[in-house]
Design goal:
The protein has helices at residues 2-8, 21-24, 123-132, 150-162, 166-171, and strands at 51-53, 71-72, 79-80, 82-84, 109-112, 118-121. The chain has 178 residues and is an alpha+beta fold. It has two domains: 21-88 and 97-102, no CATH class; 109-171, no CATH class. The relative contact order is 0.13.
């Protein structure tokens, strides 16, 4: 369901410079230790080249960097998908601008269904969803914010192989209605 929902997601919701194939068909590469050093004398110019550090601990990435999104961090084995910007020697404060992260456009809200299906969210889709699940009292709805760490990611993977109630299984397993 996750794969199909990302595949079906309209390109209107994806950043123009990002291909859905980066999510649907991830690759991992290894490079020689000097892959960051230009060999053609173009020091400080990276063009469209992007660099990534560990997504699990982006503030302490152990000094590893990759130009392949999704490469495995040698320190913690998480994927290196947190994009970082290269700053050349001739950069100045005037050169900085707001940057964009991720695959989808930030002005749209997305909902991840219990079966991991990803859908753009709107007021109309909210009412449609409430109708689908026969919600009569909006006050009975509950919003739940969750943090997804290593243990939760493993739980999501395991639950996705066993049933369709993935998020309920992982995040509400011990939840009891009052």
């Amino acid at each position: 369901d996750l794969y199909k929902s990302i595949e079906a997601l309209s390109s209107n919701y994806i950043h123009p410079n990002v291909s859905k194939d980066r999510v649907l068909k991830p690759t991992s590469s290894s490079y020689p230790p000097n892959f960051l050093l230009p060999t053609d004398g173009s020091a400080g110019q990276t063009g469209t080249r992007k660099f990534y550090i560990c997504s699990y601990y982006p503030s302490s990435h152990y000094g590893y960097v990759s130009d392949a999104p999704g490469a495995v961090c040698p320190s913690c084995n998480h994927d290196m998908s947190h994009e970082v910007k290269y700053v050349g020697p001739n950069s100045s404060k005037a050169d900085t601008s707001a940057s964009t992260y991720g695959y989808v456009k930030g002005v749209v809200t997305y909902m991840v269904m219990d079966n991991l299906e990803v859908k753009p969210m709107s007021t109309i889709s909210s009412f449609t969803l409430m109708n689908k699940f026969h919600v009569k009292d909006i006050g009975s709805l509950m919003e739940k914010h969750v943090r997804v760490g290593f243990d939760e990611a493993i739980g999501i993977l395991k639950a996705s192989l066993e049933n369709q109630d993935v998020l309920t299984t992982v995040f509400l397993e011990n939840y009891c209605l009052p």
